[in-house]
Amino acid sequence: MAAYILRRLLLIIPTLIGILTINFLIIQAAPGGPVEQTIAQLEGLTNNALPGGAGGGDLTSGSANNGSSTASSYRGGRGLDPSLVAEIEALYGFDKPAHERYFQMLGNYLTFDFGKSFYSDKSVIDLIIEKLPVSISLGLWTTLLTYLISVPLGIRKAVKDGSRFDIWSSTVIIIGYAIPNFLFAILLIVLFAGGSYFDWFPLRGLTSSNFDELSLLGKIGDYFWHITLPVFASVISSFATLTMLTKNSFLDEINKQYVLTARAKGLTEKGVLYGHVFRNAMLLIIAGMPAALIGIFFTGSMLIEVIFSLDGLGLLGYEAVINRDYPVIFGTLYIFTLIGLLMKLISDLTYVMVDPRIDFESREQ
């Protein structure tokens, strides 16, 4: 097993490099980077500064006015002093060729040096650490509630397969699965956050402005008051798949020969279900928990964080893409990919812990 773990850890390196390389190439081809955005802002300031807004943004130095070339490879930057454009490029690290920036990025990332954000003047790792508790809060409660709802519901649907309960609960599950979590989040805001009906829950943030002044019980209550709607919106889109997976897994085990043998020995249905079926049926569900957790953390929470103004990793990534904050984009991508690959390895190891009969190492020989 140690050799299998070592191989999987070594495979993480080329996987990370491949993902970073693809995204680096995409970023190079995408228009509207930080240099272009800064040039556009300067053009706007120049136009506003001139009488009547005229002038076309001709922000040039004396040398430029005397006839020197002011050509620029950036759209909107042909009226700017080339030295000013060069300073902007150096500010954002675009004064070097693409291949030099690429290899410098790989070297820095090996030591977890992700640089500083272009706009917040903080290191990327500090930003990630600052935003992580919000995403962890949302992800942990969503995962916990999803399993607490889905596993018992899936077991009951398997036991009552074909009954009225199975039919109407499947209808509810299909509707919940069909509604995107961001759309359901908006519906919750309209209904319960002062939209058009009730004003029971806050609309923004994870805590109130006077959180530090509250007692311990007050802080706990305030925290759950704020987290209720975001977690509920996330659970709706997560529990459907797990519920049906649980049901199908139990149905598959219930129809096997060893269950018929256990019943023939006189065991009660509850004894058969929880004494024999449960462990085998829960193999896929338990082993998939790490992957489900990381998926909820870093993919499902982005729109929820944006809608409810939760200052977490999802909102950080969204703002970084909008602002073309490349150090934050690549830094968060690197961290998310690394954690995802490690969680996948932990998921495989969980399979072995739940069922020792599974041996990944022997399969690769």
UniProtKB/TrEMBL annotation:
The chain crosses the membrane at residues 9-30, 136-155, 167-193, 223-246, 283-308, 328-347. The lineage of its organism: Bacteria, Pseudomonadati, Pseudomonadota, Gammaproteobacteria, Oceanospirillales. Belongs to the binding-protein-dependent transport system permease family. SUPFAM superfamilies: MetI-like (SSF161098). Its main location: membrane. CDD domains: TM_PBP2. This is Inner membrane ABC transporter permease protein YejB. Residues 132-347 form the ABC transmembrane type-1 domain. It is found in: Cell inner membrane; Cell membrane. Probably part of a binding-protein-dependent transport system. Probably responsible for the translocation of the substrate across the membrane.
